[in-house]
């Protein structure tokens, strides 16, 4: 269907990251995303260490690090159509304010764990809407030909900030208590709010009907009505989420070296997105997608042998390169999505992926309660490999039909 959006502000000749960053709006979205990711990483690591110290529970520790992702599915099912509303900049700024308030509240000394987990759920709900809004704006300020490059840069930055965040978090906790780290995370979130508010402009109205519950359900029903799109979402969500569940057990597996293991995983993700997003063509990304999805889980099978730390770090690093498999799958999903609902569809994809990260963390923590963390990691990796292999024919052979935007 014809696009209702204004023309992209990035010229079609963009071929590199530096050219993308010359677009003021993209640079603002990118900077805000970078600061938000750093803040989320710091606060998540601090909360995980705080919960581990107070409870000694692998389950609660894993859930505390990824608990916010459980609520993202609520955003996807209820108000995600707001991501395609007429004032995306205003929506994104408002959601950044909510994130700032939630992270700042975690810095309150003596806050009960039940309240901390409640804050996680609230933040997860609003963060899912923020992700959909941000990705909808990204599709507007970057032309289709550079979408994969833009997402690649976002993913690289996410990996880089996670490396720095986990390393910095481990260092800061040697000198500060978790509340001090929460204060730093809140400061980064506040800075992200200022950046977005001063660089991103409002865009055209993409829906003729008011966003709300009915509009969200209508578009979601169209998205899930075709087996090809369901297979795409399955591969974007489940194998990824199970491997994140493996990562959620690093604190329980090796409390002393958890920061190093998390940083190794983030570094591998950074490298994968750099190579796949920047150096491979669209056809190359499609050809290597299955191998990358296998790589994502296969090295974690080494945990069954309890290898020495250098081997474990190398396995985690290599496996995390496989997270780049999301890029070709996201490109395939975007190709079947009309402009009018790009924000919602991308928000649903992101929310489902994050929700499965929380599910993976909960499953991993539950298994580790009864077995060792190493055994749980090996089991989740094996299941991830089986799902990837079993679903391959559906992703490789079926082209998803376009999602119909009902006005």
Order of helices and strands: HHHHHHHHHHHHHHHHH
**How many strand segments?**
0
DSSP helix fraction: over 70%
- Helix/strand-derived class? mainly alpha
Biggest β-sheet strands, sense, barrel: none
Shape: globular
Question: How much β-strand is present in the residues?
Answer: under 5%
Outline the low-pLDDT stretches.
1-14
Specify the number of helices: 17
Intertermini distance: 12 Å
What's the mean pLDDT score? 79
Radius of gyration from the alpha-carbon trace, in angstroms:
20 Å
Descriptive terms for the model:
mainly alpha; 17 helices; single chain; 407 residues
What does this entry look like structurally?
The chain contains 17 helices and no strands. The chain is mainly α. The longest helix has 32 residues, at 24-55. It starts with 16 loop residues before the first helix and ends in a 10-residue tail after the last helix.
Give the topology, please.
Elements: H1 17-21, H2 24-55, H3 58-66, H4 72-78, H5 88-106, H6 113-141, H7 147-172, H8 178-199, H9 213-223, H10 227-247, H11 250-253, H12 258-279, H13 282-297, H14 309-321, H15 326-335, H16 342-370, H17 373-397
Helix pairs in contact: 2-3, 2-6, 2-7, 2-8, 3-16, 4-6, 4-16, 5-6, 5-8, 6-16, 7-12, 7-15, 10-15, 10-16, 10-17, 12-14, 13-14, 13-15, 13-17, 16-17
What is the gist of this entry?
This protein is mostly helical.
């Amino acid at each position: 269907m014809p696009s209702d959006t204004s023309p992209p502000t990035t010229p079609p000749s963009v071929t590199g990251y530096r050219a993308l960053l010359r677009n003021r709006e993209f640079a603002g979205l990118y900077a805000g995303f970078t600061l938000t990711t750093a803040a989320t990483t710091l606060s998540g690591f601090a909360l995980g260490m705080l919960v581990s110290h107070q409870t000694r529970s692998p389950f609660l520790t894993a859930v505390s690090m990824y608990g916010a992702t459980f609520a993202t599915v609520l955003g996807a099912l209820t108000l995600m159509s707001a991501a395609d509303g007429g004032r995306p900049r205003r929506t994104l700024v408002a959601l950044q304010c909510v994130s700032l308030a939630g992270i700042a509240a975690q810095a309150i000394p003596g806050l009960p764990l039940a309240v901390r987990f409640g804050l996680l759920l609230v933040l997860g709900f609003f963060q899912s809407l923020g992700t959909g809004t941000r990705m909808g704006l990204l599709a507007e300020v970057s032309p289709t030909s550079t979408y994969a490059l833009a997402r690649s840069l976002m993913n690289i930055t996410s990996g880089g900030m996670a490396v720095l965040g986990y390393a910095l978090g481990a260092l800061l906790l040697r000198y500060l208590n978790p509340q001090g780290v929460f204060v730093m995370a809140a400061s980064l979130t506040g800075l992200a709010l200022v950046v977005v508010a001063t660089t991103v402009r409002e865009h055209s109205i993409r829906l003729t009907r008011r966003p709300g519950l009915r509009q969200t359900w209508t578009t979601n029903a169209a998205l899930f009505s075709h087996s090809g799109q369901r297979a795409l979402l399955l591969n974007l969500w489940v194998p990824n989420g199970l491997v994140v569940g493996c990562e959620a057990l690093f604190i329980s597996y090796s409390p002393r070296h958890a920061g190093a293991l998390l940083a190794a995983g983030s570094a591998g993700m950074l490298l994968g997105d750099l190579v796949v997003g920047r150096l491979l063509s669209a056809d190359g990304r499609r050809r290597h997608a299955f191998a990358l999805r296998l790589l994502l889980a296969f090295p974690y099978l080494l945990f069954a042998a309890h290898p020495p730390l250098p081997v474990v770090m190398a396995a985690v690093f290599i496996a995390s390169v496989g997270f780049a498999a999301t890029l070709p799958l996201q490109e395939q999903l975007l190709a079947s999505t009309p402009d009018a609902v790009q924000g919602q569809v991308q928000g649903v994809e992101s929310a489902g992926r994050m929700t499965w990260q929380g599910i993976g963390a909960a499953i991993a923590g539950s298994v580790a309660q009864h077995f060792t963390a190493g055994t749980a990691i090996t089991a989740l990796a094996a299941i991830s490999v089986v799902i990837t292999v079993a679903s391959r024919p559906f992703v490789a052979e079926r082209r998803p039909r376009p999602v119909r935007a009902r006005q």
